[in-house]
Amino acid sequence: MEKFTKIISPVVPLPLENVDTDQIIPARFLKSTSRDGFGENLFRDWRYKKDGSENADFVLNNVKEGEVLVAGKNFGCGSSREHAAWAITDYGFKVVVSSFFADIFKGNALNNGLLPVQVSEDFLQSILAQTKAHVAVDLEAQTITLQETGEQESFEISAYKKHCLLNGLDDIDFLLSNKEAIKEFEISSRIYSGTPTTLK
Amino acid sequence: MAGKTLFDKLWDAHVVKHVEEGPDVLYIDRHLIHEVTSPQAFAGIEKRGVPLFRPKQTIATADHNVPTQDQHLPIKEVLSRTQVEALKTNCEKHGVELYGLGHANQGIVHVIGPELGITQPGMTIVCGDSHTSTHGAFGAIAFGIGTSEVEQVFATQCILQNKPKSMRIEVSGELKKGVTAKDIILYVISKISTSGGTGYFVEFAGSAIESLSMEGRMTVCNMSIELGARGGMIAPDQTTFDYIKGRDFAPKGEEWDEKLAYWKTLTTDADAEYDKVITFDASDIEPMITFGTNPAMGIKISGSVPLPNGDQSYRKSLDYMQVEAGASLKGKPVDYVFIGSCTNSRIEDLRAVAKIVKGRKKADNITAWIVPGSKHVEAQAKAEGIDKILEEAGFELRQPGCSACLAMNEDKVPEGKYCVSTSNRNFEGRQGPGARTMLASPETAAAVAIAGYVTDASEYLN
Ligand code: SF4
After folding, report:
1. Do B83 and A28 lie within an 8 Å CB cutoff?
2. N or C: which end of chain A has fewer CB within 10 A?
3. Do B433 and A45 touch (CB under 8 A)?
């Protein structure tokens, strides 16, 4: 995983609430067996018209620059598909800002080096009120700054996840380093006592 | 010291280790996988060169992508076929039991787990699918995970998770006649919103919940994810034990007695405290239907569509659905009826539908699909003659899979058409690009199929 430190970038505004994972990446595009290429179909049904031509009204077709997606509350609700996080990172985003994130999406984002930044509803509205906003996101300091006005907020992230992102580490490396403890747990304290239960 | 909730007890019993200022290493008893969210995880462990740690605790089925007709023939759509074949190859290579197409145990992953007795009280169960919450109906901690987490379970039988907060949702009192488990959960979601449960793990309780069958309880827990909750659970009781007993993977003999004794201890202590408690009166609930594009946009079928409060997302949603604020949905013509999905495709659901449509015919304007949740449900329906009743009523009984719940296969609702569906999500395009979904119970869906327009089942009961 790539290391994340600090970015300053124009924002791509999507002022809608409850953007669900079926909108981020519709189910019919989940048929790949690899992690790559999902960016092409990010927000597919909002981005393109039925005849395949671009929908000029949709933000991704107007704002071509920016690594920070800013969306209304409850972003990423719906299915657990990690493809949603893959589509967003594959498209080129490094940060998603919202006033509220759905749980599974948040976890999936963090597992893919995509930083979910939860801000207050007021701060979100300040960003969306600017025609061409830029933000600075500093993971070390846990702050987000709206460049145009200088407004700043701090955001939360667990110390563990912050460490992972700053150092480009992932959870599996960490879990694998705990294998002995896992084996001991299986023997000593499993509810389904003794050796692991097998299905048959 | 205050007592513990059932959720706390089970969670704590599965923590291998707590990471300082970080998540818990949580041990997973059962891992369910399917073709869509597993290939990248298999590729991941292969790339790292680590073996699948506990293959015998993983079970696979093909459901999301599979056709619901002619399942004996090769899958026509190339990409779907590739995914289903990749699952087969991966399972063979890594020693995972697969219930693929053609197998007597195949079906929607959340239908087959309980039906085969794989799902048991006290377990931790995960699957790369958000509706894993279904299994919580048995008093298990069950929740959906992303593909990176599937890879974690493959590599170590554990995942890193922050412990969610606890919420109790109590539904007490007597349900009105004709009110189903699906109506309960649609009602609860409409009251709490699709984000009201975010950060929480829900325990459903109260006399109305206890009165439900296992199948009804699964319907409730299935949709707990639509509250934004990590999952939902119901403490196991005699109904639970009776359901499990005798199933293929259920404990037998002495082991049964041991497990049963343990399961009986799985309750929330009387003095336990939840982070949040919400109570509802069962007698307030009526048959429900959704009018918008998220599951919280539900109303009583006898009610009317709420007026907008100036919010852009709400207007966009009504516009997509082409429904009018302030109007009643009753009498609105419908084009499709879909009875299926891990929410409502079990044998009880099919029986409920059969009871309503028996001796009647579907309306001419309706295309009605019934997709059983599993091969076993399909076989049972045939054994009971339900297939005949449905056929005579003009319904198409298809073969098991997720089908029009997410329309990854050919079963798509055409653009602009209305579908009353027993599934769990009414998102834009969920049942096909431009499709307009209204969620309801199997009873309501059956009544709509007969009437040809939105109605409740009251006149067809008895
Ligand atoms: S039936 Fe629908 S909700 Fe259930 S697992 Fe399949 S796609 Fe997901």
Report:
1. no
2. C
3. yes
Which residue of A81, A103, A197 is in closest CB contact with B198?
A103
Which candidate, B456, B390, B391, B445, places its Cα nearest to that of B418? B445
Show the DSSP H helices in B176-225 as ranges: 181-192, 207-210, 214-222
How far is Cα of residue B182 from the mean position of the Cα atoms in its chain?
11
Tokens of B441: 């119970």
Q: Which residues of A72-90 are buried (b: 16+ CB within 10 A; e: fewer)?
A: bbbbbbbbbbbbbbbbbbb
CB-count exposure of residue B320 (10 Å: 0-12, 13-18, 19+): middle
d(CA B130, CA B144): 4
CA distances from A9 to A70, A96, B248, B330 (A): 12, 12, 57, 50
Closest chain A residue by Cα to residue B122: A191
Taking the C-alpha atoms of residue B415 and residue B418, their distance in angstroms, rounded to an integer, is 9
The yes-or-no verdict on residue B196 having pLDDT over 80 is: yes
Residue whose structure tokens are 């599993």: B374
Core vs surface per residue B79-98: b (16+ CB within 10 A) or e: bbbbbbbbbeebbeebebbb
Give the pLDDT band (50/70/90) at residue A2: confident
Nearest CA-CA partner of B422 in B130, B183, B162: B183
Q: Answer yes or no: is pLDDT of A81 > 80.
A: yes
Is the CB of B148 less than 8 angstroms away from the CB of A18? Answer: no
Residue pair B36/B127 in contact (Cβ under 8 Å)? The answer is no
Q: How confident is the model at residue B193 (pLDDT cuts 50, 70, 90)?
A: very high
- As a whole number of angstroms, the distance between CA B368 and CA B306 comes to 29
Torsions phi, psi for B31 (to 5 deg)? -120, 120
Q: Identify the sign of the CA torsion B391, B394, B398, B401.
A: negative
Residue with tokens 């700043």: A152
Distance from CA of A144 to the nearest CA of B (A): 22
